[in-house]
Design brief:
The structure is a homodimer of 125-residue chains.
Chain A: H1 5-11, H2 22-31, H3 35-48, H4 51-62, E1 65-66, H5 67-74, H6 78-90, E2 94-99, E3 102-107, H7 111-123
Antiparallel strand pairs in A: 1-3, 2-3
Helix pairs in contact in A: 5-6
Chain A binds a DNA duplex (30 and 30 nucleotides) through residues 5, 9, 18, 20, 50, 52, 66-68, 76-87, 98, 100-103.
DNA sequence: TTAATATATGAACAACAATTCATATGTTCA
DNA sequence: TGAACATATGAATTGTTGTTCATATATTAA
């Protein structure tokens, strides 16, 4: 049996927030993944959440490419692409190999295409 | 046969950007999803790319919840949660039903858990 | 109707992030 | 060695976004 709002208000430990379904809150709290996992997950999706980076990843689905090729493809400066590639590499989404002056980038993980496709399935439903 | 760098530089139509593998760039350009699709995809991932919103979605995997319950669960203000729920609803990730004063939120789409799980698979590999 | 309460929302603020610009690094070739 | 070039990077700038604060809206109960 749920408590009345008055009872809940009386036993409420939060300073400003009232809470109606204390029991549900406690149940959900126990099942939530830990703080760090959820933070890391948000960080991962944040990397996908920029159209320049999405375009780069999408291009790399098709072919390994060097920095200046990607810049040409996306009609952006070499510097902008290089900065974004660093973000992608830091987050282990791309890897690179150096041949002389040229640095070739490619995807670093098979999960990436799956994440991408799930997102695509959502927006094209 | 690839052109020499000098030949490429001579025929390069970009003002500042040099491009080494023109053929690859053209091939990839043809296969890239259109601009708008990639923009929408980035927008979707952007919604997942905030730890508050990820926590809300994750909570709603377990149970339908009202605004003040979510605020209590995450130890945040009602206003902050309400603002984020609006973002989630605008992007069709949650839906709500109103019972008197109370508004209950729940997930609006089956894809969401798949996207979430693919992300989780990546960070926990 | 009035008080209490659950939620929504606009404006302001602060933190963050993407691009640009200038320049540094490292490699090749003459 | 020096010139050309592909890439990387730090700083500055500009645009974006999450939270807070104050307040509005809407519903219930007295």
């Amino acid at each position: 049996m749920l408590k009345s709002h008055e009872e809940l208000a009386a036993t409420n430990e939060c300073c400003e927030i009232t809470c109606i379904h204390q029991n549900i809150v406690e149940e959900v709290r126990e099942k939530l993944p830990d703080e760090e996992t959820l933070y890391d997950l948000a960080e991962l999706f944040k990397v996908f959440g920029d159209s320049t980076r999405i375009k780069i990843l999408c291009a790399l689905f098709e072919s390994e490419m060097c920095v200046c090729d990607i810049a040409t493809l996306l009609n952006m400066t070499q510097s902008a692409i290089s900065h974004q590639l660093r973000v992608l590499k830091t987050n282990k989404l791309v890897k690179n190999r150096k041949v002389g002056k040229v640095v070739y980038y490619s995807l670093d993980d098979a999960h990436i295409k799956h994440i991408f496709d799930q997102g695509l399935a959502h927006i094209t439903e």
